[in-house]
Amino acid sequence: MANAAGRTALATVRLSAKLAPLLTRRYTERMRDLLLQIQVFFALKIWKKNPKALCSAIRGFQAVEADGVWHLHQLFLRTNQLEEKARIFQHLLEEDSHAEIFAKEVGLLTGTPSGVENFKRHDLTLDGENNWRAIAYLNVGEVDATRKFEVLARQLPESSLKTALEKICRDEAGHAHLTVELARAFSIPDEALREQIQSIRQKRFRDSVSKQLMSVLNSISLLGLALVYWLIGWTGFFSAKEKLKQRSVDYDNNFLKRFSH
Amino acid sequence: MRVLGLSYGYHDASVAIAEDGRILFAAAEERFSRQKHDPQFPALALREGLKLHNLELSDFDSIVYHEDPFNKFSRVLTSSLSEYPKAHQEFAQSMKAWMGGKLWTLAELAKLNGPRAIPIEYASHHFSHALQAFMGSGFSSAAILIVDAVGDWTCSGLFRAKWVNGKPEIRAVQEIAFPHSLGLVYSAVTSYLGFLPNDSEANTMALAAFGEPTYLAAFEKIVPMEDDGSYRVDTSYFNFVRYYQGAVSKKFIAEFGPPRDLLKTKFNFHSFLPFQKALPDEQHYANIACSLQMLFQNRVQGLAQKLRSDTGETNLCFAGGAALNCVNNSKLASASGFERMFIPLDPGDGGTCIGTALYSSSVGKPEILDRQLTSYSAYLGSIPKITNDLEIVNSLSVENMKKFSTASADELKRWRSLKKIEGLNSNQLIAKVTQLLMNGKIVGWFQGAAEFGPRALGNRSILMRPDDLKLAERLSVSVKKRAGYRPYALSMTEEAAVSILNPDFATKCSHRWMQYIAYVNQSEQKKVRAGLHVDGTTRPQICSESDNLLFFQLLSEFGKQFGVSALLNTSFNPSGYPLVTLPSEALVMFVRTAMDVLVINSTLLIKTEDSL
Fold it and tell me: Checking DSSP bridges between strand B2-7 and strand B540-543, what pairing results, if any?
């Protein structure tokens, strides 16, 4: 099954290349695939030992699919041509079903409740001016998510998650084309779309690097704050204990205040 | 005076636009971001409100924020210091969040309109709740009870309010401080029972109906009542500060057993269908839920009685997350000694923006007092433009749509084509929908402006006839995908309420917004059995002509044919998501579930067995 998913993926990419030069894989992309495989290899080791981390990862996948659904709804809202609307809707149904598949997987894996990861939504289709940006964004999202799911499906042992990922990969096979076709239907020049895809890719790369850096900085700052706590926290310990012994609030805080800035 | 009310930063971010004591718009961010309880700055909701009323930020005279960030910060800092040196993880995480943004919320708000800063006002969390409870209550004076998890320092607030020279005066009677929180206790046990805290407390409440209060004495020991009617919490049973250790402490687990493992203990209870005798594990957790619910009711009751005797007021305004517990609300209405009671449309944190905006936009304006003494409408949200959204069904093949449906094979077999009926006037629409409802169809009903708050009140609702248990089961399994122990609600006309509901049903409060439960008369139970809980109660919405004309007409017309003007009404949302906002969201849910009919304004889509 894993090989089947892999073959589907390859076929997708080949077909994409035929359909439009926009989807051609380049050296950097192959490098990114390699990195992804390494990443997945280590992730699987971690997930084996820590099912909570696996749940969190699947929640992340669900959130990514749901984010795609959200963007498609915005695009649907701001598209007037019926044919394109119908195409977007069909796509919507599929993405929505994928988000649900992941939600079910979380339910099968965890014995404790967990919430859905929140995304900051950035509407790229505001006032109908930037539909092409949304399409490029969706294209990049589809291609990246499919690649990730394929690598993951290949490396996972037999499980319901593996089956779910393989199904999603099969479904996703035509999505990248769909975004290209949509772009053409919106009369977006190939060149403009290519540029936009590239700029989104570059931005994503920068974001990913800065995310990694931020995560390192985050760990350092947390360590630093914990150190501050250990070093000087004791100075506030007794007064804090005393404060928490008070059962009532003993000052008047019940009025509208004005913030001066 | 035009004011922008904002509540965000923890959960249920919302925005309200008020003008001279009248709410023009109110909506939660989750409706637009499609993320339940979305806590982020409500940018999308604000954009919608501005667009709908053709406003710009510069049109506002002030912005009111629902919390005092500095005071809240002092509580967060103090609580982690009180657990020195064990709370290092909580300290580091919370300080990072606060220093990295939350502490500067007001400064950020001041920058919202660029160089032309709009004056920023803010209130303590519980004062915001008090405003939310009193403004729009229609009372000229009242006692106010606020019970929630925790705001700045206060966990439960007792207030007294009255209008003086066109200005509401609100004075605290008593404020019970952190960590003595009924809301935190309820949420911690909710988490222990395997539900998501700050989200699924309604599950705990529903589960309670299947249990016995066998642990009530144990809970009474943990949250003892004080001589004055208030309470305290023995925090050694919980991890309120060191929350990374889990919601409840080892001491709690030693006394009540391990937390429910979702994979091991599933609940087979059912609110309206017969179910097999519960396994010991299931019953154990149901008994804990029941005991917790009883304790909660007793303690809130104690606070209300104290408030009644301290203030002498006969009107009660109740808000805070605890006021979402409709079982407790009914107990409070019937036994607290108050003559009249008001609960705001959304009594949780999300609704505070309404109270603060109303207050700020009307202070010092005696001329609009009359306006303040009337309540507001529930339909304050977005009104999506319906363009050609539904035209697309003509160009989609049913087989293609069916591929993504989660309906059963049998249900899919019955769906051969999609029939679209357009351009009906309201009489025709109501006649047609009534006929479909009578024929046992599940109808998605999407009309006009969205409701504010957590309840579907007839504009974003899923409706069905209230007597068909099999249909209700289909609704639970194939449309809503929700646990069987969670009951459905009923919407009815006033006339129907008189015949269906027990006469003891409190006349002290308004039932416009599904906030209380009521016993259904034995003789009428068969007719509305799909909308009943296992204990014979329902959560009614009594809809009047002035509240929602079209929905009232539908209920009345249905009543003429069915015999009772009542419909089973549940929220129009896919499992795990907020109520639908866009027509396309409604359409996706319609296609992907076993819903039979979708009504969007005057257009009907019907899944039919006939092939076209």
Answer: unpaired
Question: What 3-state class would DSSP assign to B160?
Answer: strand
ipTM reported for the complex, 2 dp:
0.90
Sequence spans of domains, chain B: 1-136+344-375, 140-341, 389-608
Contacts of B277 (CB under 8 A, 6+ apart): none
Residue by residue, DSSP assigns B481-522 as: ---TTSPPEEEEEHHHHHHHB-TTS-SSB--TTS-S-EEBPG
Sheet holding B340-342, edge to edge: B167-177, B154-164, B141-147, B315-319, B340-342
Beta-sheet pairing, B2-7 with B62-65: parallel
Q: Where are the alpha helices (DSSP H) in B42-196?
A: 43-52, 69-81, 88-99, 105-110, 125-134, 182-192
Closest by Cα among B158, B332, B150, B159 to B230? B158
Instruction: Return the residue of A nearest to B69 by Cα.
Output: A259
Cβ distance of A261 and B117 shorter than 8 Å: yes
Q: Which residues in chain A are contacts of B588 at CB distance < 8 A?
A: 69, 89, 92-93, 96
Q: Which of B59, B190, B31 is nearest to B118 (CA)?
A: B59
Polymer length of chain B: 612
pLDDT per residue rounded down to tens, chain A (261 residues)? 344 444 444 444 444 444 444 444 566 667 777 887 887 888 888 887 877 788 888 888 888 888 889 989 988 888 888 888 898 898 899 999 999 888 888 877 766 666 666 777 877 665 455 667 778 888 888 888 888 888 888 888 888 888 888 888 887 767 777 777 777 777 778 888 888 888 888 888 888 889 889 999 999 999 999 999 999 999 999 999 999 999 999 888 888 999 986
Put simply, whether the predicted model's pTM sits higher than 0.80 gets the answer yes
In this structure, which topology does domain B140-341 adopt according to CATH? Answer: Nucleotidyltransferase; domain 5 (3.30.420)
Could A256 and B388 be called an inter-chain contact, meaning their C-beta atoms sit closer than 8 Å?
Answer: no
Helices (runs of H) and strands (runs of E) counted in chain A:
9, 1
Beta carbons of B395 and A83 less than 8 Å apart: yes
B598 φ, ψ to 5°?
Answer: -125, 130
CATH 3.90.870.20 is right for the domain spanning B389-608: yes
B440-450 average pLDDT score: 97
**Interface list for A 218-237 with B (CB within 8 A):** 218, 221-223, 225-226, 229-230, 233-234, 236-237
Q: In the CATH scheme, what is the code of domain A2-194?
A: 1.20.1260
With CB atoms and an 8 Å threshold, state whether A256 touches B64. Answer: yes
Q: What is the DSSP string of B41-52?
A: --HHHHHHHHHH
> B85: cis peptide before it, omega within 30°?
yes
Q: Judge whether A123 is closer than 8 Å to chain B, CB to CB.
A: yes
CB within 8 Å: B81 and A113 = no
Q: Give the CATH number of domain B1-136+344-375.
A: 3.30.420.40
Closest to B154 (Cβ–Cβ): which among A223, A225, A249?
A249
- Cα gap B327→A61, rounded to integer Å: 37
Report which listed range, A195-209, B352-366, B408-422, B552-566, is most confident. Answer: B552-566
Q: Encode pLDDT of B27-84 as tens digits.
A: 999 999 999 999 999 999 999 999 999 999 999 999 999 999 999 999 999 999 999 9
Nearest C-alpha neighbor of B580 from the set B478, B431, B480, B504 = B480
Question: Can you tell me the distance from the alpha carbon of B6 to that of B580, in angstroms, rounded to the nearest whole number?
Answer: 22
Interfacial A residues in 164-183 facing B (CB < 8 Å): none
Which chain A residues touch B581 with a CB distance below 8 Å?
Answer: none
CA-closest candidate to residue B346, choices B95, B49, B55, B579: B579
Strands B340-342 and B315-319: parallel
Q: Are B6 and B63 in contact (CB under 8 A)?
A: yes
